[in-house]
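Hey, I was hoping to borrow your eyes for a little while. No rush at all, and the record is pasted right below:
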Amino acid sequence: MLKYHTVSFLAVALAACQPKAAGEQSDHVSPEVLALHDYSLADTPNERTALAYLYTAWNDGQIRDARLTYWSPGSFPDLEAEAAADSPPEGLPIDLPVNVGSPTYTIKKVFEDDDHVIVLAFVEGVGIGEEFTTVFGTPGGTKIGDAVVEIFRFDDDGLIAEKWDTIEPLSEQTYDFR
């Protein structure tokens, strides 16, 4: 009998030490959205949600829907009020602003650490062909796109709670995603 209890106790202790399985997180990305873009680098629900936000907001130009779908409730109160109203309030952005151009994200790497997801992407479509200067004041060349690092923090429900990003223009001379 002692042998059985020891094995049972050990099994329970080991199970308690296991990290949360990816399947236990909520997956907020519908199969229809998954079919629209490449999610091959996203192995977890949070990674898929981060990519779905980027693809929906930027590649598809639907910022409003992306914010309402993939962010924690209360993150964008004006948009939530608009969605609940019969007619949208004046002055709220519905979709991609005209002055932004047509950015297209190509995802290069996705990492998850606890409740954070980091996305490294190459973005085309904004300011292409323009000359730029590096942060060191030297000529950077002709812009072919931007290197973008997006950092997301997720809440317990698997929705985006916070986001930070950094953008660096790239030329043929400075492009390198090793």
Notes: Residues 28-170 form a domain with the Nuclear Transport Factor 2; Chain: A, fold (CATH 3.10.450.50). The chain has one domain: 28-170.
